[in-house]
Amino acid sequence: MKMLLVVILATTLTRVSSTSVCDTCECIGLEQLKLINCSSRGLHHTFPNETLWSMDAQSQEDLQVSVSMEKNRISRVEQFPYLPRVRRLSLAHNTILDIATHAFAKLDSLTHLDLSYNHLSGDAVRADVLRGSYRKEEYEPMHLISLNLAHNDIHSLGRKAFEHLPYLQELYLTGNPLKLIDVPTTTTLGYPKALKILDLSATGLSALSDEFVHLPSLKNHLEVLILSDNNFTEVPEELASLGSSLWELNLNGNPLLELGEGSLLGLRRLRVLSISGMPHLKRIGPAAFDELDNLTVLYAAHNPHLSNIDEAAFRQLRTLKALHLEHCALDWLPEKLLPWEDLEVVDIQSNPWLCDCDLNWMTTKLVPLLATEDPEHVVDLHCASPQWLAGVNLLSLSQHPDGGRGPLCAPEPREPVKRHLRPRSIAATLMLAIAVCICSVAAITACFICYRRLRVFRPVVLGTVVYVPVREEAKY
Q1: How far apart are CA 127 and CA 130, in angstroms?
Q2: Nearest to residue 90, comparing CAs of 108, 63, 78, 72?
Q3: Domains of the chain and CATH, by start
Q4: What kind and span of H or E run contains 259?
Q5: What is the pLDDT of residue 14?
Q6: Least buried of 37, 46, 151, 450, by fewest C-beta within 10 Å?
């Protein structure tokens, strides 16, 4: 009886330990692609035993295998077995604290590795972890093209962390508490031959060093730089050193106050600029984009205090094709700001437009153009003032039968709201009036007190005798 129980137990354990990957996960085989989905399976391991991986058609050189182990309970990554066809591996959204030495060395074809949303420190991202198999001509290189380390606990990277990643082109470090790009991190970023995409968003940065922008891996190679949600109060002037290759720059969510002449020096190849979601940006000054000879797309949306764009801000820019200014604080735009008919996309919705004669050009020229190109971009285009036009869609005003003068310059049913009577001007006038009233009350009160005191000390004459009141505490 005991022998039978032992046999049954051993058989059960064998079955559990020999459960293949596709028995636990979802395996989808296509002609030249195999997807292995092990996400959300409650896994605590990464199937380190090679016999568990039943790779059909392993001999096919053109077979690509993608493995997802996201949203499990994996806290340590053991060494993967020999899996020569795995191209993509995602271990995101786990609880990984440590990775075994040579964990990915037998994944000869691995090009994309996602380790985001874990608990990795800089010490866990080591050179002996990101190391490939032995090569005579190279020093144990991995063939990684993309590495995602976003949303971990990395304060700094080791000096040699990437020494085996010569082919790395995309690096994502967003959401790590770097605070600054220190010397060890700068050193290891120099190992790849040509980084093309670098995401440093939400890392607490407020400055960039000269050593960083002059790295051979970045200079003349970096194409996309993401610096959003950091602490930059002005555009780093060091970015000019990357101008020969950089074509997309994302500065969203930084506390910039103003963009003006010289803010974007040296970025002549830049085609896409994002300056949206800036909590303090108030103004875009003249010549702000003079250096951007190739800019085609500008995102400047969701800036709650952006109320002024100078007429000369785009004075030399003739390549722009898409402009996003939605959800800002604009109540007026100059007609000569841009050659509007050359733009393919213009979104200026959800702004507090002051519908007076100065804005008439929009209703007669721009809004009809937008309605023709993309009707969705005029849905939320409404007047905020004057009160008698509040909530009216500018498209309906563009269809007003006014004889060509424009509806906003036609006679109004009440006294027109002058530009100096805008809501902000009215508020300032009211505050000034209140201040004057307070000062007047204070002055009257002071005069009254002085008058009372003079009456108290005035001599009292009784006949020929003069009595002068004295304070009780006076001494003779």
Answers
A1: 5
A2: 72
A3: 23-119 (3.80.10.10)
A4: strand 258-259
A5: 37
A6: 450
Q: What is the pTM of this model?
A: 0.81
Candidates 145, 194, 199; CA nearest to 176 is: 199
As a whole number of angstroms, the longest Cα–Cα distance in the chain is 139
Strand (E) positions, 97-196? Answer: 98-99, 112-114, 146-148, 170-172
Is the Cβ–Cβ distance between 140 and 134 less than 8 Å?
A: yes
Are the beta carbons of 251 and 229 closer than 8 angstroms? no
Angstrom distance (rounded) from CA 85 to CA 63: 6
Q: Which amino acid is at 53?
A: W
Q: What is the pLDDT of residue 462?
A: 44
420 pLDDT more than 60: no
- For residues 148 and 159, what is the distance between their CA atoms, to the nearest angstrom? 18
Dist. CA 395–CA 407, nearest whole Å: 11
Decide: 34 and 27 in contact? Cβ < 8 Å. Answer: yes
Pair 332, 308: CB distance under 8 Å: no
pLDDT at 382: 94
Q: What is the pLDDT of residue 57?
A: 41
Distance CA 293, CA 261 (A): 14
Q: What is the 3-state secondary structure (H, E, C) of 1-48?
A: CHHHHHHHHHHHHHHHHCCCHHHHCEEEECCCEEEEECCCCCCCCCCC
Contact 155, 182 (CB under 8 A): no
How is residue 386 written in tokens? 């004057």
Q: Cβ of 447: how many Cβ atoms within 10 Å?
A: 10
pLDDT of res. 439: 74
